[in-house]
Amino acid sequence: MSLSDLRRQYHTQLCEKIIRLSDKGKNEYPNFADRDNVSSRTIAWGIIRRMGYIANYQVMSGQTAGKLFEALTKDFLAAAFALLHHLRPGQWYYSTEEPISAFAQYEHLTQLEKLVEQNNDLATALGRDYIVHPDIVIGRRPVTDADINQYRQLISPEDEIARLTPLREGNDTHAAYILHASISCKWTLRSDRGQNARTEALNLIRNRKGHTPHIVAVTAEPLPTRIASLALGTGDLDCVYHVALPELQAAIVETNNVDQMDMLTTLVDGKRLRDISDLPFDLIA
């Protein structure tokens, strides 16, 4: 299977399992479009036509769509990493359930949480939002000495070196996976919905003991002006990824919407928005 095949498979899964048509009001529209925004509806239609969508009117709640979006994106990334394993070898773990405190850089937050639960003054001072539950996490398993010495003898248990790195499994009897990436999934972006992704990102940056994981967001939002609320600026998110960027670009050209095209160009040329197919490569860089 090629990466193009995998991307098409991902789109097929989105079409079959998540995308629904709603006929509330006068117009039908896909469930990732804004019913009250003509541009949003028109661009969304352009995207799903290019994805080969077959009409489905089965009712689905926004929460269900969001959970499915997380699961399908996780599966896509796991499959892509498998195809690119030769570029970034390792044993990788993918989950939509784990808090950051399960990983090496953030294990100390578990102890902090216990202290906060026992002390109201600490709870007032520190709050309780420092343990982030990302939509998707990718972790890397620490390596054994046998892994390290696979091609030549580089280290031995008797050496008094490299005793503190979490990447070496033998350094900790309960070695935790290392958090490689935190991925926020936003099926749509409305008003300030994307701001919690920024809050999560800042917590990941401030509360770590070790290197910062990749921090990204994935969205199906059809309006670049709304994507900009999450994508513009630097310092928190690495980048935002669209589930179908070439399809989005073609749909906007088709509508001749100058404002949306200008913003899309700004985001892409400014290296703040990329396609979902770019994400596996950026994660292994």
Structural features, described:
By secondary structure, the protein is an alpha/beta fold. The protein has one domain (3-141, 177-284): 3-Layer(aba) Sandwich (Rossmann fold). It has eleven helices and eight strands. The protein has helices at residues 3-17, 38-50, 62-83, 108-118, 120-126, 145-148, 195-206, 224-231, 245-255, 258-269, 279-284; strands at 21-22, 29-30, 92-95, 136-140, 178-186, 214-219, 239-242, 273-275. It has a six-stranded mixed β-sheet with strand order 3-4-5-6-7-8, sandwiched between helices. Helix 1 packs antiparallel against helix 3, helix 4 (108-118) crosses helix 5 and helix 8 packs parallel to helix 10. The longest helix has 22 residues, at 62-83. The mean pLDDT is 91.
